[in-house]
Amino acid sequence: MLIPPTFAMLPPSASLVSPPPPTLQSTTTTMKPLPFPSSGFTSLHRDIEEMAASLDLVATRRQPWQLAVAERVKQVVYSIWPRAWCDVFGSIASGLAAPCSDVDMVVRGVPQADRVRVLAQHLEREEWVQMVQAVERTAVPVVKFNTAAIPIAFGNRGNLIAVDITFENEAHHGLNTCGLVRQFVQRWPPLKPLVLVLKQFLVEKGLNDPYVGGISSYGLVLMVAAILRRHWPSGMTSKADLGLLFVEFLQVYSSKEFLDKGVRFGNDGRRKPLGDPCFIEDPLDPNNNVGRSCFGIQQVMEHFSKALEAIRAYEQETSVTTLAHSSMLGRVFATSHHADVVRLVTKVWCPPELPLRTEASLRPQRFPFPPHPSSSSATTHGANGAASPTHGSAVERWAMETREALIRTLNQVERESGSKCPLCLQPSGPQHVAAQCDLVMLLKRCPL
Q1: Which of residues 313 and 407 earns the better pLDDT score?
Q2: 122: domain CATH number?
Q3: Which residue range forms the structural domain that includes residue 41?
Q4: Which is higher by pLDDT, 399 or 111?
């Protein structure tokens, strides 16, 4: 486990909780301390809460379309391997999805021979699938592809749904890690807003994808959990200042000590594996280094350090006019106010608010997605710039069929006590009624 050095830098009036148990010893550091306010980062705490809530809302608005795609993927998988098992895991299942999060799916119970190639070939035949890529020479082989299309009237980036399909093997820990992340979220409520904001920060820097050297979502969760565990080893016992936790995160993971010691959840004293850029221990498998593919860690640390400098500069800002039209978190994102980031994310990734439709109008004849703003007619534009029809096309058939599949699944879940809600993936029962789930209600409002 990483032992954060920041309590050697924080004044007593800015500490979060009482001193840690004696088994967790703080270390010293030569890092220059920031000018911490004695009352903590009240404004930064509020900024993080606001931004995390907005990002979570955008991600929630996208989920019905993403999970509709998941249902179609299951149909393809079951048509190839009738005895297979296929389901969603990752950020969507754990409740930590960002607006740009992919749909992560896992397949098990299928023959190992050529399974990646076979699935990729079948997906390429589907009209609603675009840009299929089979990545076989990795520890966990994956089939990556995009689909059409969430109705967003701005640009052509946010309307694509990215899907990663992996196959269960001895190196695949996705399902277990999903359960662990859910436990972390319940144990430490500050984890979710911190992860959502930090994930968006890495997205802005292009360092959120482990396939190109960034930090994986699971790795980021473990890094935040290590900070929270330092203060609350057994779960939350006091109210947290998100601003102080955010600054502590940036300090710890921009320091050389992080590269030397890594993130550890055990006490075996093992060294960082030779050749790995950084070490993030997997609590479920101490032999698994979650940071082994993060060869962009130096860039990540540089951006964390620049974020600290932005916070320092904002703290020293004296202009009343500047402070009235800016925010500390906005400066971290290299803009004046964090609301600017939220507005752009909403414009690029968020589907429009959908009007309420009655059950009698669930099957209209037209597909109501708006045309691309650069087109005067009802057309959309693909990645190659070619126009393709929106109404009466494969996209329309895809949307109608996926919606019907989800409605059938929902009705089945509502009849079967103890099974999972097909949208929010929480167990149905006395504490959760699928028919009252916010995502289910959003789906029923979709005018398809």
Answers
A1: 313
A2: 3.30.460.10
A3: 6-52+178-303
A4: 111
Quick one: pLDDT band at residue 45, thresholds 50, 70, 90?
A: very high
Round to whole Å and give the CA distance between 276 and 289: 8
- Say if residues 162 and 144 touch (Cβ distance below 8 Å): yes
On whether both 69 and 163 belong to a single domain, the answer is yes
Distance CA 147, CA 54 (A): 25
Q: What is the CATH number of the domain that holds 264?
A: 1.10.1410.10
| Residue whose tokens read 């059409």 | 148
Q: Are 426 and 186 in contact (CB under 8 A)?
A: no
Sheet holding 161-167, edge to edge: 85-89, 103-108, 161-167, 142-147, 129-135
Indicate whether 312 belongs to any domain: no
CA dist list (Å): 330 to 86, 197, 306: 40, 11, 13
Q: What is the pLDDT of residue 384?
A: 38
Q: For residue 62, what pLDDT is reported?
A: 86
Q: Are 41 and 247 in contact (CB under 8 A)?
A: yes
> Is 285 a member of any domain?
yes
314-334 residues labelled b (16+ CB within 10 A) or e (exposed): beeeeeeeeeeebbbbbbbbe
Determine how β-strand 103-108 pairs with β-strand 85-89. antiparallel
Structural domain includes residue 319 = no
Q: CA separation (Å) from 251 to 77, 200, 257, 277?
A: 45, 18, 10, 19
Q: Can you give the pTM of this predicted structure?
A: 0.71
- Report the first-to-last Cα separation within the chain, whole angstroms: 49
Task: Measure the CA dihedral 87/93/99/101, to 10°.
Answer: -50
Residue appearing with tokens 């995160």: 249
Structural domains of the chain, count: 3
Predicted confidence (pLDDT) at residue 9 exceeds the cutoff of 90: no
303 or 235, greater pLDDT: 303
Phi, psi of 211 (to 5 degrees): -70, -15
Given a contact cutoff of 8 angstroms between Cβ atoms, the answer to whether 241 and 17 are in contact is no
Helices 217-231/191-205 angle, 10° precision: 140
Residues 206 and 297 in one domain: yes
